[in-house]
Design a protein that fits this description.
The chain is mainly alpha-helical. The chain is about 75% helix and about 0% strand. α2 runs antiparallel to α3. The protein is elongated and about 60 Å long. The two termini are about 25 Å apart.
Length: about 90
């Protein structure tokens, strides 16, 4: 994908208008990729937490070291969810 983005930004093969459009598209791809990476990280962590709680037959909040850590993890997941939703809606951070 990175080669594709570089190719989109190559001024030698594009008119100025095409180049501007390609730069905007490449910026959008990078913005969405960043949001997706963060959201996927949160999803992987949440899935791990749920699996661990199921294996230990406890509530998810008991599968971590403390309630404070659980609240921090949940806040991270919610922030990642909000960022991903905003990115998909085209909102700026």
């Amino acid at each position: 994908m990175d080669d594709f983005i570089k190719r989109l930004r190559d001024p030698d093969t594009r008119t100025q208008d095409d180049w501007n459009i390609c730069n905007e598209a490449a910026d959008e791809i990078e913005r969405l990729r960043e949001a997706l990476t963060i959201a996927l990280s949160a999803l992987v962590a949440a899935t791990s937490l749920l699996k661990r709680s199921e294996d230990e037959k406890v509530k998810p909040s008991r599968a971590v070291a403390s309630n404070k850590i659980f609240r921090l993890m949940m806040a991270d997941y919610e922030r990642a969810e909000d960022n991903a939703r905003a990115a998909l809606l085209g909102e700026k951070e």
